[in-house]
Design goal:
The chain is mainly alpha-helical. It contains 16 helices and no strands.
């Protein structure tokens, strides 16, 4: 009750308390409850600060003004977010919300036509707010050389639950649109962030510890942010391509974005091995699940449709490499 009242009346008191509270289990419980309550209230400072924190520096990194006290406290030194597991209440709240929404697809607001969601409602959405919070947090961790994935692995289960809940049941929704409903838009935002966490690694020193590959495979390297992002990206793609309701246009668009990332990595100095990691992760995604054959067929279908354009835009040898890889899955 105290935290609920504090979030509504004096939200920044929580930061003052955290700053002077000696680290112990009770402090951690307080932080988790504090962030959860902020997530519950769309008018809270959590949402307001995210909306006010959209200015970016070069390399995908966001400005973090001290006036955004909550984000500045946790993310100006991303080690604070890591140490206090700031990602857990944010990610867990979204997973809980998606389970609740999944109980009644017909009344799920995210199955409505996109409409004016981007103009008026996205900053009231816990799902969108969580995506933006992870985006700022992972970018800061990447640039600050934090050797930890910051639990960006919340993204695949969030995608899994969104595609499970996904239905085109709004009479104003057009399945042929780029984003037929609000889920489709949010899914594309997650994929965009995951790709950017890989490509923005090119903006930091190549010898920086959290971008140096130890193995050119798809095994976990928890201290490597771009490799962790590739693993999460491919796992998310598996869920999207094996979903029953996602239309062909969106599945092709998501797959094309992953293929384009492969071509980009292949020609980026010092990052060619990450292209191989991407192929390894595409192979491993959903390997032991029953829908694996559906996933492979969908990958091949997108390549077949886009192949002629790939051969115009990219190095022929790299297109041949991707084609051979897909044929031998």
């Amino acid at each position: 009750q105290f935290i609920s009242q504090m979030v509504g009346r004096r939200p920044y008191l929580g930061i003052s308390i955290m700053e002077v509270w000696t680290r112990d289990g009770n402090r951690n419980e307080f932080i988790q409850s504090y962030l959860w309550k902020l997530m519950e209230e769309p008018s809270s400072v959590f949402y307001t600060e995210l909306r006010n924190n959209q200015n970016m520096r070069s390399g995908g990194r966001y400005y973090l003004p001290e006036s955004n006290r909550l984000l500045y406290f946790f993310l100006s030194d991303a080690g604070v977010a890591k140490e206090n597991s700031a990602y857990k209440p944010v990610g867990d709240y979204v997973l809980m919300l998606l389970d609740e929404l999944g109980q009644s697809p017909s009344s799920d607001p995210y199955n409505r036509d996109l409409g004016y969601f981007r103009e008026h409602d996205e900053w009231k959405s816990p799902i969108y707010a969580a995506i933006r919070f992870f985006d700022i947090m992972v970018e800061e961790a990447l640039h600050q050389n934090i050797e930890w994935h910051m639990w960006l692995y919340y993204m695949p289960p969030i995608v899994e639950k969104m595609v499970r809940n996904y239905h085109i049941n709004d009479p104003f929704s057009d399945p042929n649109n780029e984003w037929p409903n609000r889920y489709s838009y949010l899914i594309s935002e997650i994929f965009s962030s995951l790709r950017r966490w890989v490509t923005d690694a090119n903006e930091v020193p190549k010898a920086q510890a959290n971008v140096v590959l130890k193995r050119v495979d798809c095994q976990h390297e928890n201290g490597n942010i771009p490799k962790s992002s590739l693993r999460a990206l491919c796992e998310s793609l598996f869920y999207a391509l094996t979903a029953k309701e996602l239309g062909d246009r969106q599945t092709r668009s998501l797959t094309d974005g992953v293929f384009e990332l492969f071509f980009e990595l292949r020609v980026t100095d010092g990052f060619q091995d990450y292209a191989t990691v991407l192929l390894c992760c595409l192979r491993e995604a959903g390997k032991h699940k029953s829908q694996h054959s559906t996933y492979i067929l969908s990958l091949r279908a997108t390549f077949s449709i886009e192949e002629s354009e790939y051969r115009i835009k990219h190095v022929e040898e790299h297109v041949d490499e991707l084609e051979s890889f897909l044929n031998h899955l």
